[in-house]
Amino acid sequence: MEIQDKELLGYLSIIQDPRLERKKLHKLTDILFLSVCASLCGCDTWEEI
Length: 49
Known about the structure:
Layout: H1 8-12, H2 28-40
């Protein structure tokens, strides 16, 4: 797969989502993006994120 943009979401979009389709409440790219942003802001645990 070729990355079109050299943006964070472009890189995150190439990660395969192993979850079952019926159990997906949110897009994996959204979850990963929020996790990266929260980590950059100093969040260390899932509760903080």
